[in-house]
Amino acid sequence: MVELSQQFEKAFPNISQASLRQAILEESDLMQTVAGSVILDLNQLISSIPLVLEGVVKVTRIDPQGKEILLYYIRPGESCAMTLSSAIRRGVSMIRASAQTDVKLLLIPLRSMLSYRVLYPSWNDFVVTMFAHRFDEMIDLVEDLTFHQVDYRLNKYLVAKATLLGKRELCLSHQQIAKEINTSREVVSRLLKRFEKEGSVALHRERITLLNSFNGGGS
């Protein structure tokens, strides 16, 4: 319990109210899962709110035709705004949350989260800050899809992925990238071949290495 408490304080320094920290640690369930696992799926009843302690969670939206688009990532010290929004409205999940890496998180029961809104002002501060951050990310996403060419979005995606994972060698298929930046696999393959000819990436089977000349630019 002491180790978990220390890890929580390190990941969530902005939740500084001691009584709130204690309530979260006492009332939440600890979940650990491996990369690729689905943590919350589309239309699933929401019974808890995740707080990420370790690892990265990918949040995507899926349309009725099965087309998937990346919304954002949840990092240590963060939660899921879409899940929280649905929980407050007593709705079902509108997103899929899956482990991008091995993940360790706390799951706050819905009834506890609802009580925190009344009992702990610092919880409301945390939620407002989180929603503001996610809103900014969603505006960036809309701008990218509306105003920027695919090569710019691909550059930005590769930089973000490398930064997120802390490495320049990325285990990604062209199809996976295409799904996450909302384009076709053929377009991704063509652009990556261009990047390779320019000397900015090295391509392998389901693996991409960003070389030193890769600057994350784009037209």
- Residue windows where pLDDT falls under 50 for at least 5 positions: none
Beta content comes to 15-25%
Strand and helix order: HHEEEEEHEEHHHEHHEE
CATH topology of the largest domain: Jelly Rolls
Q: Give the biggest beta sheet.
A: 4 strands, antiparallel
CATH architecture grouping of the largest domain: Sandwich
Helix content: 40-55%
Whole-number count of domains: 2
Number of helices: 8
Give the class from helix and strand content and strand pairing. alpha+beta
Q: How large is the radius of gyration? A: 19 Å
Q: Can you count the beta strands? A: 10
* CATH homologous superfamily assignment of the largest domain: Jelly Rolls
Distance between the termini: 50 Å
Give the CATH level 1 class of the largest domain. Answer: Mainly Beta
**What is the 3D form?**
elongated
Integer average pLDDT: 92
Across the major sheet, the strand order is 2-6-4-5
Descriptive keywords:
219 residues; alpha+beta; Jelly Rolls; Arc Repressor Mutant, subunit A; 4-stranded antiparallel β-sheet; 3-stranded antiparallel β-sheet; 8 helices; elongated
